[in-house]
Design brief:
mainly beta; six-stranded antiparallel beta sheet; 6 strands
Length: 73
């Protein structure tokens, strides 16, 4: 898996995510740095392809209703 940061984007195997690599937070399973995904205001592990937190329960939330099951396609 190739992960690079360029301007305000993180590129993961050619897939662009607006956000940044957070080098202070790491996955407990694979030790990969978390990535902040601006579109969904959430962090995820790129190697495990999981969100670090559940969706909120606010029905008026701008981010959570549109968040996919997995961060990467």
């Amino acid at each position: 898996m190739r992960i690079e940061e360029k301007d305000d984007f993180v590129i993961i195997d050619g897939f662009e995510v607006e956000g940044f690599i957070d080098k202070t937070q790491h996955c407990s399973k694979c030790k990969s740095s978390f990535i902040y995904y601006e579109d969904f205001d959430a962090y995820f592990c790129p190697k495990c392809n999981i969100w670090t937190e559940d969706k909120c329960g606010d029905p008026t939330c701008y981010y959570c209703p549109n968040r996919p099951e997995k961060p990467l396609p």
